[in-house]
């Protein structure tokens, strides 16, 4: 079973960290998501805590309230 996208439809890239404040992926990771292996997707998802710590407090990631998107 493919790993679902962590997208929560809050698409705003933090200029300092380079991470989306909603899903904590980089623009490149967002673009390449559909072609990634499940192993690489797991690496990105499992790295959320480290990535969230790099965001300024005012750009805290959104909490996921619905099922992940497939983008």
UniProtKB/TrEMBL annotation:
Protein name: DUF1289 domain-containing protein
Domain of life: Bacteria
Source species of the chain: Paraburkholderia rhynchosiae
């Amino acid at each position: 079973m493919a790993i679902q996208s962590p997208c929560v439809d809050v698409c705003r890239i933090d200029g300092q960290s380079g991470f989306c404040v909603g899903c904590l992926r980089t623009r490149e990771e967002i673009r390449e998501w559909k072609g990634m292996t499940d192993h690489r997707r797991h690496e990105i998802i499992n790295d959320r805590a480290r990535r969230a710590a790099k965001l300024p407090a005012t750009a805290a990631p959104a909490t996921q309230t619905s099922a992940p998107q497939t983008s």
